[in-house]
Each structure stands twice: as structure tokens, then as C-alpha cells.
Amino acid sequence: MQYDPIKQRLGRLFSQRLWTRSLFYRLLDILLLRAWHIHRSLRDFGARSRGRQNIRLLDAGSGFGQYSYYLARKHPGWQITAIDIKEEEVEACREFFARRGKTNVEFRTEDLTAFEQPQTYDLILSVDVMEHIEDDESVLSGFYRSLKPGGMLLVSTPSDKGGSGIEHQDQESFIGEHVRDGYGRGEMEEKLRRAGFDRIDINYTYGKPGRLSWKLSMKYPLLMLGRSGLFLAILPLYYLVCMPLVLGLNVADLNITHKSGTGLLVRAWKHNKKEES
After folding, report:
1. All structural domains of the chain with their residue ranges
2. What span, in angstroms and rounded, lies between the C-alpha atoms of 212 and 208?
3. Is the pTM of this model over 0.85?
């Protein structure tokens, strides 16, 4: 299924008013389990960075801009650069953030395979991006060079344990835009080490509770919207019915250590040369 056209239609629908786009961001924060995992890691990073000045962050593949908006509200003193290859989404974000007065975020149209800002960022965030890029090792190398010493890379991406909706070997990806169905933990670690990272932490997300939550909150609604836009009219009722279960499953997934899962949460740090002295 082509996922991007549905995303773009929803994005345009919710971007018609300031309050509807703000609501859209809030709904994404609630419905997308990956946002729960990312927000927890961002809170941990924020707690460790408390008191530091001039924190600079890169939102690499910013999409609708919901993570940049979350960070801009939580940390108005941080300087955030948000980049995406899709000019339409970048322009929509620029307009919304300007009208919301979020002056600590700069949106730019960039290709991640060619992007590099040496030793610039304390944190690089990349959510649901790597699975779309064929030349992923160039991107990871660019991330490494763009981090300050001691800086952290935070990535959320599908795993090879059923990511992209793959439940058996012959099944096609639920999301046609992915160039790979998911990463193995070992594969991702090897690519990170080749890029230069030497401290790496990779954990599974979307275990059994998360897989069911994803089907209820995302897969089934998007499949129905892909068949007919008329389903949009009954979507609020659908979510009203299933939301309590989805929220409970998300809480469970967030608080369980998974031996396997359809997602990976990756944290990797650039070596801090100061520690050698």
C-alpha cells in the first residue's frame, strides 16, 4: 500500500487551521506508540542536559514536524534544525511554526544522504526515516560527523522481526515506500560502528502489546482509508471505541523489556575525546 498519499491528504486536511494542526500533533503523540518511546528518551536526554547552554538538535527527516513542535514547547531555549526532503511539508511547517511563534526552530529542505554539519549538534533525532533510504550508511556517517563529541543519535525504525507489517516471508510490505522491511539489531550495530559510533544501545519496541496497538490504531484505519475516503467520516467513532485498549497496550509496551519486536529504538553516542584525558 502507498502510505505517503494518505499521510499527505491527512496532513493537508489538518493544516487548514492552527488549532486543527495542533490537534493533529496531539493525536499523533497519543496514537503512535513510537512517539511514546521517543518522548521517554527525549525526557531522559533533557534531564541529563539540564543546566547546559546552547543545546542544538537536528530533527533529521522531520515530516509533519510533530517532534520539533514537542521539543520547541518543552525546551524553548534549545535551537532546533528540522530538515526533510519534501519541500511541501517543510513549507507547511515553516508557516505553522511562524504563526505559533516558535522561533527556536529552523526548517530546511535537505537530502540526508548529502547532509553534513561537522560537530554541530548535541542530539540528532531520526524517526521513521532510515527505512526509506537506500544509502543508509552515508546518512549514518553524516550523522556521526555532524554530532559534537559526546553527542547522541536517537533513531526509531522498523526491525526485521515483522517491521513494515511483514508477518510472513512472502508478504509485501504494508508501506510501499520502504526500501527495506526492517533492520536486524546486529545489522544496525555494524552500520553504526562503521560510521564511527562505539557506544551503542539498541532495544526492541512494538512487542506483543505494541503490535496489536499498531494494528488497531494505524494499520486497520489506514487500510480502510486507502479503500475509501468515506471512512474518514466514521474514524472519530472508531477511535472512541478502541482508544482505551490502544492506550493500555501502549503503556504495556513502554514498560516491558522485549526479547523481540517489530520496531527498534537506537541510541548511539559519539566518543567524547575529553574523556581520554
Report:
1. 3-206+258-272
2. 7
3. yes
**What is 3-206+258-272's CATH number, 3.40.630.30, 3.40.50.10950, 3.40.50.150, 3.20.20.70?**
3.40.50.150
C-beta atoms surrounding 149 within 10 Å? 12
Task: Give the model confidence (pLDDT) of 48-106 as tens digits.
Answer: 999 898 999 999 999 999 999 999 999 999 999 999 999 999 999 999 999 999 999 99
For 151-185, letters b (16+ CB in 10 Å) and e give bbbbbbbbbbbbbbbbeeeeeebbbeebebbbbeb
Report how far residue 21's alpha carbon sits from residue 24's, in angstroms, rounded to the nearest whole number.
5
Q: Which amino acid is at 49?
A: S
Rg (CA), the chain: 18
Question: What does DSSP assign to residue 195?
Answer: H
